[in-house]
C-alpha cells in the first residue's frame, strides 16, 4: 500500500488500473494492489506486482511539465483497451498503460508522454496442436518490425461454458520480420508446469490464446486478436 499525493491537475482518483486500486481511508488517499489469489503463482507475477508498485511510485517524481503532457494526451484522446473497449483515462492512467506495455515487452519505461498512435492488431491466427506441438498459424503472417507482438494464454479451461475474459498470462513475444507459424509448446509447458504430450493425451479442455502489438516508441498497443484451441 502507498499513500498518494496529487498535484494541481489530478486531485482525486478512484477505481482500478493494472491491478492497482485507488481509494480513500482515514489516512487519506492510498494506492494498493488488489489482493487476488492467482491461478498460477510465479516469479513473473511477483515481478509484475513490483513493476506496478514502481510505476505508481515513479509518477510523483515526474516534472510538472511531463505530468502536464500526460494530462494533455488524456484530454485529446480516448483510450482503447486490449478488449477494444473505449475508455476515458486521465494522465496518470495513460502513463501507467503505456509503461506497463513497454515493460511487458522488455523495454524501459518513458517519463514524457508520447505522440498518440493508433496501433493495428496482429493479423488473424488459428491454433493447432498434436502430442508434439502447440502452434500459432498465421495465414497472412506477422511482421511487427521493431515493435513487438505479445502473446498471452489462459490455463487449460475445462468449464463447459467459456467466458472469454479469462485470466491471461504473458507467454511469449515476437519482434522481427514476417512469420506464418510460431510453436508455443515449450513456453506453455513452462508457464503452467505440465508435460505437453501427457497433458494432450487426456486434457479435454480449451485454451485461449490472445495477441496484441505494442509500439516501441510510445508503449501504445492494439486490442487483442484471439483464437481458441479445443483439445478433445
| Rg, alpha carbons | 19 Å
How many domain regions? 2
Q: Major sheet: order of its strands?
A: 1-4-3-2
- Based on secondary structure, the structural category is alpha+beta
Distance between the termini: 44 Å
Overall helicity: 25-40%
- Give the DSSP E fraction (strand runs of 2 or more residues): 25-35%
Query: Runs with pLDDT <50, length 5+?
Result: 35-41
Q: How many DSSP helices? A: 5
Verbal overview:
The chain has 232 residues and is an alpha+beta fold. It folds into 2 domains: 2-104, no CATH class; 126-231, Immunoglobulin-like. Helices cover 25% and strands 31% of the residues. The protein contains 5 helices and 13 strands. The strands form 4 sheets. Strands 1-4-3-2 form a 4-stranded antiparallel sheet. Strands 10-9-12-13 form a 4-stranded antiparallel sheet. The chain has a 3-stranded antiparallel sheet with strand order 7-8-11, covered by helices on one side. A hairpin with a 2-residue loop joins strand 2 and strand 3. Helix 1 runs antiparallel to helix 3 and helix 2 packs across helix 3. The protein is globular. The N and C termini lie far apart (44 Å).
Note the topology.
Blueprint: E1 2-3, E2 15-17, E3 20-25, E4 28-33, H1 43-58, H2 64-76, E5 79-80, E6 86-87, H3 91-104, E7 126-129, E8 134-142, E9 145-153, E10 169-176, E11 179-183, H4 185-192, H5 196-202, E12 205-214, E13 225-231
Antiparallel strand pairs: 1-4, 2-3, 3-4, 5-6, 7-8, 8-11, 9-10, 9-12, 12-13
Amino acid at each position: 500500500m502507498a499513500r498518494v499525493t496529487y498535484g494541481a491537475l489530478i486531485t482525486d482518483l478512484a477505481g482500478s488500473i493494472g491491478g492497482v486500486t485507488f481509494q480513500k481511508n482515514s489516512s487519506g488517499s492510498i494506492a494498493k494492489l488488489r489482493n487476488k489469489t492467482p491461478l498460477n503463482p510465479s516469479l513473473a507475477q511477483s515481478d509484475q506486482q513490483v513493476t506496478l508498485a514502481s510505476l505508481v511510485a515513479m509518477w510523483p517524481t515526474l516534472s510538472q511539465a511531463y505530468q502536464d503532457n500526460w494530462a494533455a494526451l488524456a484530454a485529446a484522446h480516448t483510450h482503447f483497451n486490449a478488449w477494444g473497449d473505449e475508455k476515458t483515462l486521465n494522465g496518470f492512467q495513460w502513463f501507467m498503460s503505456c509503461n506497463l506495455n513497454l515493460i511487458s515487452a522488455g523495454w524501459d519505461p518513458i517519463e514524457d508522454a508520447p505522440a498518440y498512435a493508433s496501433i493495428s492488431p496482429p493479423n488473424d491466427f488459428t491454433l493447432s496442436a498434436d502430442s508434439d506441438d502447440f502452434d500459432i498459424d498465421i495465414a497472412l503472417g506477422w511482421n511487427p518490425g521493431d515493435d513487438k507482438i505479445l502473446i498471452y494464454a489462459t490455463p487449460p479451461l475445462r468449464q463447459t461454458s467459456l467466458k472469454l475474459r479469462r485470466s491471461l498470462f504473458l507467454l511469449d513475444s515476437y519482434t522481427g520480420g514476417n512469420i506464418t507459424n510460431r510453436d508455443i509448446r515449450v513456453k506453455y509447458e513452462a508457464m503452467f508446469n505440465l508435460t505437453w504430450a501427457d497433458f494432450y493425451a487426456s486434457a479435454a479442455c480449451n485454451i485461449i490464446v490472445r495477441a496484441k502489438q505494442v509500439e516501441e516508441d510510445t508503449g501504445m498497443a492494439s486490442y487483442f486478436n484471439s483464437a481458441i484451441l479445443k483439445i478433445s
